[in-house]
Amino acid sequence: MKTAADHLLELIRIPSDSSRSNRSVIEYAQEAFCNAQWSTALSIDIDSLGIEKINLIAAPAGQNPEMPNADLAFLCHTDTVPPAHGWTAALAPFVDAGVIYGCGACDVKGFLACLLCAATEMSKDSFRPGLRVALTADEEIGCLGSQRLLQKGKLLPRTLVIGEPTSLHPARAGKGYCLGEMTIFGAEAHSAHPRQGRSAIYDAARVIQAIEEFAKQLVGPKNLFFDPAHTTINIGTISGGTAKNVIPAECRFLVEWRPVPGETADYIPAAIERICKQMTQDDAAFRSDFKILRQQRGFETAPDSNLVHTMEHLTGRDSIAISFGSEASVFASLAEEIVVFGPGDMRTAHSPRECVALAELKEAVLCIKALMQKE
What we know:
Elements: H1 4-12, H2 23-35, E1 39-46, E2 52-59, E3 69-77, E4 94-96, E5 99-101, H3 109-121, E6 131-136, H4 144-151, E7 156-163, E8 171-174, E9 177-185, E10 189-190, H5 200-217, E11 232-240, E12 246-247, E13 250-258, H6 267-282, E14 287-296, E15 299-300, H7 306-315, E16 320-322, H8 328-331, E17 337-341, E18 355-357, H9 358-372
Parallel strand pairs: 3-6, 3-7, 7-17, 8-16
Antiparallel strand pairs: 1-2, 2-6, 4-5, 5-18, 8-15, 9-13, 9-14, 10-12, 11-13
């Protein structure tokens, strides 16, 4: 019988960044579930580039994966980010000093390996009723797989455990994740004659400065369960212009914000719109367009909830909050209780340092088995 480490070493070797189909990972997991006499159901979609993406729902023997209502569900994505440039050993995992290194080791194939190990180590009649495991596609590019599951009504969980690296702390709260694209419009002209045009990059710089000043106003004790305790804003990419001697007619930049739970969905977009409106009032020739690309709210499960208490007891660790995005945002309005949990530390993810300790894998398996166990 394979250990979680055995599963993880094989899973890391399977290329599964979001630019490709996740079928190979799904088929690997499906075989493991079938060997444990679980039933599985696939939901297949074709993305905008014509690439097949698959969600899988599994249920123990005697339970029907086609039935969406679940008392407890485990959710785990199957995609990774592309390996960092120059990371030649990304898909060649190795063990060193009790730690497995490789792409996806903690984000989040380690948790998937633990799920497969737990399912195969338990006897088929020992599982609690209303149990499901859902494996999703395209989490790293917008939680698209979990959104499809929800839109199709394939999974309706009462309580939900979502796999992400939390160093085995049950995370009962998390910030949301939102993204918008700002386009600033100018007018092209030869750079030797600047009065004949208008620089979109100069205008963008003024907008960015105003957004930065607004972001500073958000700093403060809003929700002390988080670090930082407030909504954060980042401008991560910017592009514009066509040549060094041409006044740029267009400039685009991405605005990312991570709202604390309870903040209204339109708070940041409304503030950005106000900034642009003020720019127009000050200069009628200023033109801009702001498009929201992604808007997922945060989640927060009560500290005295049954799931939080149970997982704190099982792990011997206090519950925490996470500042990174997760699929919890997709199910926040549906599930009564959500905890994000898994082996590994997110601070190593998305880099050649990505790793997970063998001891954490073993401990995670024990916790998952206890949650899956019939009372």
